[in-house]
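Lecture notes, continued. The same structure-token format from the folding unit now serves as the input rather than the output. Read the line below as a description of shape only.
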């Protein structure tokens, strides 16, 4: 069960965060950038308001232009390389945090899958969750309570 505030950080502990709000949404991203930055087939993420997150330590980032034309930054620890969070010009008031970076990731429950058009052919996407070939309009994505 998630308790607020909740905490997380990188593997070596040099970058830490504390979140003072419930996630706005939770999902699994299958885009190639998330695959590359995480070194796996997808990235479980949750979105929180940027104003609700407090960071300690300094993360490095890689910036690129997404297929949508938005500028995106993927942040990671410069010492241990842990993927931590992302920021997009399309959602400047939110931060997408990697669920694997949570101190207690057991509460994470994905609500949907995005960028399934980029999913690896050996990945099975559960039929019981909504899935989108790209990024859905935000009105189509379920909120933290599962509403659309």
């Amino acid at each position: 069960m998630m308790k607020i505030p909740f905490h997380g950080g990188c593997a070596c502990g040099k970058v830490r965060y504390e979140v003072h709000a419930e996630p706005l949404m939770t999902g699994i991203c299958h885009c190639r950038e998330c695959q590359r930055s995480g070194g796996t087939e997808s990235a479980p993420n949750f979105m929180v308001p940027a104003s609700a997150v407090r960071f300690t330590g300094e993360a490095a980032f890689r910036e690129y232009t997404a297929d949508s034309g938005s500028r995106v930054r993927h942040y990671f620890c410069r010492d241990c390389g842990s993927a931590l969070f992302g920021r997009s010009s399309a959602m400047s008031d939110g931060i997408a945090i990697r669920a694997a970076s949570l101190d207690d990731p057991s509460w994470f429950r994905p609500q949907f899958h995005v960028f399934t058009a980029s999913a690896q052919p050996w990945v099975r996407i559960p039929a019981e969750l909504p899935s989108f070939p790209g990024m859905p309009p935000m009105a189509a994505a379920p909120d933290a309570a599962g509403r659309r």
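Point for the exam: The longest strand covers residues 43-49.
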